[in-house]
Design goal:
heterodimer, A: 1 helix, 0% strand
């Protein structure tokens, strides 16, 4: 099992990068959804 | 939303199957042993990253031609997703190189052109934060994206045109190059799984950008009233 640590590190970093990237997209989408809702409500109140 | 969740579940299953195939179906390499299995992560990530940059290039060309925001949204989404895959390539490469070459990094043509590609698309994303006006921002970044894509053929050709520390190509290489048929099948399957992941991330990122477009329209409406 020589170099098992390298294989483990490569898979850990790779899936970590994809997971963190997906989280940032989901977080940004959630913040935008809130902004969109807030703006729609304030526009409706103004009408 | 249900379709997206089902698609996500299918991609996770594909990725798990690809990881299983990489560890238990692909035969062990005589020279490198276990560490060569990083190939099934490193190479498909590289191919998928280049595919995403190609989508970005096409979207950039279409934006310059048509000037419709949807092409701009696709361009930025593909650039960001391509960058995530290229980051994986640049991280897994040195982890593989260290036990095999004895060094983490060398400035050979393949490694340098890949690093330059990563820097170019980071610049593409930074450029977008510098321009406020949406149409100008979309046009500038589309033009920069078209320029940045010039590096993609260089990355592809680098191991064919110059002598490099990086191994010679396993696809469209010299006669006698290539892989064992089982390794080759596992590699193709891993690429398919990565393409599935790319599609999922691209859809999520495109939706985000479309929402941002809607928000900009509403903001303009709010300012006008």
């Amino acid at each position: 099992m020589k170099n098992l640590d390298s294989v483990f590190a490569a898979y850990l970093f790779a899936w970590g990068i994809f997971f963190v990237y997906y989280l940032t997209v989901a977080r940004r989408a959630s913040a935008l959804r809130d902004d969109l809702e807030r703006l729609k409500n304030s526009l409706n109140r103004g009408k | 939303m249900m379709k997206y969740a089902l698609g996500g579940a299918a991609v996770v299953l594909l990725l798990l199957a690809a990881a299983y195939a990489a560890f238990f179906i692909a035969p062990t390499d005589i020279k490198q042993g276990l560490v060569y299995r990083i190939l099934f992560l490193h190479v498909p990530s590289a191919w998928t990253g280049l595919t995403a940059f190609f989508i970005c290039f096409v979207a950039n060309l279409m934006y310059v031609w048509r000037r419709t925001p949807r092409w701009d949204w696709l361009g930025i989404s593909a650039a960001e997703v391509g960058l995530a895959f290229t980051t994986v390539v640049l991280v897994t490469g040195p982890i593989w190189a260290h036990p095999v070459w004895g060094i983490w990094w060398t400035w050979d043509a393949r490694l340098t052109s890949t690093f330059v590609l990563w820097l170019l698309y980071v610049s593409y994303l930074l450029l977008r934060t510098l321009v406020e006006e949406p149409d100008r921002r979309a046009l500038f970044s589309a033009l920069f994206g078209i320029f940045a894509f010039i590096d993609v053929p260089l990355v592809f050709g680098s191991i064919r045109w110059w002598r490099t520390q990086h191994p010679q190509p396993i696809v469209m290489g010299e006669p006698g190059s290539g892989l064992d048929p089982t390794m080759w099948n596992v590699l193709r399957f891993s690429w398919l799984a990565m393409l599935g992941l790319m599609t999922l991330l691209l859809l999520a990122r495109y939706r985000l950008e479309a929402m941002r477009g809607d928000l900009e329209i509403l903001r303009r409406e709010a300012e006008a009233t």
